[in-house]
Specification:
618 residues, 7% helix
Length: 618
């Protein structure tokens, strides 16, 4: 001190009134001070008492700022973000400026990524707020940080998070086609390209009329009560809390369906075998018409024919008689039957299905000349021939009559379809013709039948049924006729040989009573097999000396043997293969007569010998 007033015993150094040093030296370094801070310093000199110096002040040197707080962020409409901050906890100098940085957050597959940092503002030390509106997106996550700068360095805050406010959706996508039926459309809702917030609802419109409202989680909806194969304009409105925006319209078409309003075709020209039809499009095609077809069915009643029995008509099968492309409205069915009544339908088809016209329409084709479709059917029985022409002609018009000709001579005009000619000459060729005469024209069919020469005709009622042929002869098949006649002759010869063999066998086992009887037997055994047709038979018993007769009577299946001297009744079954038994020690010479269908086949004398013991069978 300038005036010590005694011995100085110590010096005290007080910084901010705190003793930081005591001693007799004159210099001391005070540490652990804060940068860029004003401190008060006092020196105290002590003898027995102490005296303080005046207060001195000193400011420590600046240093890097420390403790810049995270900025406070507020999302505003616009979108914009209000940024507020404070000075660093330890500025450590004079803050010359603040710098504000921003980056955008992205969520990619659950991973958060960041954009590059963007310096959005440099603010002097007097401002602590900034309203950022540049290049911000609605409903987007951002991060901000503040950097405080002094003459030595800078202090950087942590990132602050903020999400901008929601806005009206932008770039709303039109509904996408999902599927369709003939009366409905199913559409898929896609999120907007720029939602600008949380979508709260979707509103679906059909032709400008609201038809559905969906939540944000519903992505598919079906619009019903639509018309088949019709274009509808569908749009969707996406909404957030900030508002709504509507997409452009999407033109969507319902599916095809069975055509409706199909009218019957109309005939513009009718012929014998074809009809020219015209028609109009269905009132509701319900799709793209790909074809038109005409269906035909013969119906009842058909045009009158004198040889057709009333009530014999049958409906025909429905067949397709014409098919043409969907852009053609006229067609001509071919190969129709002349003089026939048809029921016609128009069948309209699109890619979905087809539908008949309702009601149908009826037309009768014109008449034309008759035609031959088959040969006459000829059946021969002895010298009788039956000719059948039921399936020979296509009349193609109203029948007047059939002319039946034998050897080119007209013998009958009739509307019947069969004719029997009797008492023909054996071995003579006959030509049979039938001419069909209609209201339009006529046509003639001929057959030839040759009756083979034979002395007698074998009546089928006297022979085995399987050996009686029914012959159908074609007009010119003479070789076939000859072959059939040869077969008949061979069969008849075989039958005669078998009968002769049987008779010879019976002759060998029967002991004849007399040579006269045997000669008579031989003579009668070779009589013709076939008797006259006359059923009246002369009495063959008049020349017998024993005056015996054998009479076959249908009395309870009893064979009655009668004679003038004795009478015995023997019960036997009246069938082929049974025999007549005579008792021993009796001699009879009855005349046996075998009858079949009241026609005599054969008769002979049989001698039953009495020398034979027991019964003899014949």
């Amino acid at each position: 001190p300038q005036i010590p007033n005694g011995d100085i015993t110590r010096y005290d150094l007080l910084v901010e009134n705190t003793v930081v040093f005591t001693g007799l030296q004159f210099e001391y370094s005070v540490t652990l001070l804060q940068p860029f801070t004003l401190y008060s310093v006092i020196i105290r000199a002590c003898t027995t008492t102490c005296t303080d110096s005046q207060v001195s002040t000193v400011v420590t040197n600046p240093d890097t700022p420390v403790g810049q707080p995270v900025p406070m962020l507020t999302a505003l409409e616009g979108p914009s973000i209000l940024i507020q901050w404070q000075v660093p906890d330890n500025p450590n100098g004079i803050i010359t400026e603040y710098r504000i940085f921003r980056r955008e957050l992205f969520n990619v597959n659950g991973q958060t990524t960041f954009s590059d940092e963007t310096l959005v503002a440099i603010v002097d030390d007097e401002l602590f707020t900034f309203d950022n509106t540049s290049l911000l997106k609605l409903y987007t996550d951002y991060q901000y940080k503040v950097v405080a700068i002094n003459s030595v360095g800078q202090a950087v805050s942590e990132w602050g998070d903020i999400r901008t406010v929601q806005g009206i959706p932008m770039n709303v996508v039109p509904p996408a086609f999902h599927s369709s039926m003939y009366n409905s459309l199913t559409v898929m809702i896609l999120p907007p390209v720029t939602p600008n917030g949380v979508i709260t609802s979707y509103i679906v419109y059909r032709d400008g009329v609201q038809v559905a409202e969906l939540s944000d989680t519903e992505t598919i909806t079906t619009i019903t009560n639509l018309l088949p194969y019709t274009i509808y304009y569908i749009s969707v409105t996406a909404c957030t809390v900030a508002g709504c925006d509507t997409s452009d319209t999407a033109a969507l078409r319902t599916g095809e369906f069975t055509p409706e309003g199909v009218s019957a075709p109309v005939a513009v020209s009718i012929g014998a075998r074809d009809i020219v039809f015209t028609w109009i499009q269905p009132t509701k095609p319900n799709g793209i018409i790909i074809s038109y077809s005409i269906l035909a069915q013969t119906v009842c009643p058909q045009p009158t024919q004198p040889h057709v029995t009333p009530g014999s008509c049958r409906y025909g099968t429905t067949t397709t008689v014409y098919t043409g492309p969907g852009d053609q409205l006229t067609g001509t069915p071919q190969e129709l039957t002349p003089y026939a009544t048809y029921q016609f339908f128009l069948l309209v088809a699109n890619s979905n299905s087809s539908r008949r016209s309702s009601p149908s329409i009826f037309y009768t084709t014109d008449s034309t000349d008759p035609e031959i479709k088959d040969t006459l059917s000829v059946r021969r029985l002895c010298n009788t021939v039956t000719v059948d022409w039921a399936n020979v002609f296509h009349l193609n018009g109203l029948l007047k009559n059939f002319e039946f000709l034998v050897n080119s001579q007209s013998v009958d005009f009739t509307t019947a379809v069969t004719r029997t000619v009797e008492d023909l000459q054996y071995g003579a060729p006959y030509e049979f013709k039938v001419k069909a005469i209609t209201s339009v024209g006529s046509v003639e069919q001929a057959n030839f039948v040759l009756i083979e020469t034979a002395p007698h005709c074998v009546d089928p009622s006297l022979t085995t049924p399987s050996l009686t042929p029914n012959v159908t002869v074609s007009p010119t098949d003479d070789a076939t006729i000859s072959s059939i006649g040869s077969i008949i002759i061979i069969v008849v010869a075989i039958i005669i040989i078998l009968v002769l063999f049987l008779c010879s066998f019976l002759f060998c086992i029967v002991v004849l009573s007399s040579r006269t009887d045997r000669e008579k037997y031989r003579t009668q055994a070779h009589t013709p097999l076939l008797p006259p047709v006359d059923n009246k038979i002369a009495d063959p018993l008049s020349d017998l000396t024993l005056q015996e007769s054998l009479m076959l009577e249908n009395r309870s299946n009893t064979l009655d043997i009668s004679s003038a001297r004795s009478k015995q009744s023997i019960n036997s079954s009246l069938s082929y293969g049974n025999s007549v038994r005579t008792p021993p020690n009796h001699r009879y010479s009855p005349r046996l007569t075998l009858l079949d269908a009241s026609k005599i086949l054969h008769s002979s004398d049989v001698d039953f010998s009495q020398e034979e013991s027991g019964f003899r069978d014949t």
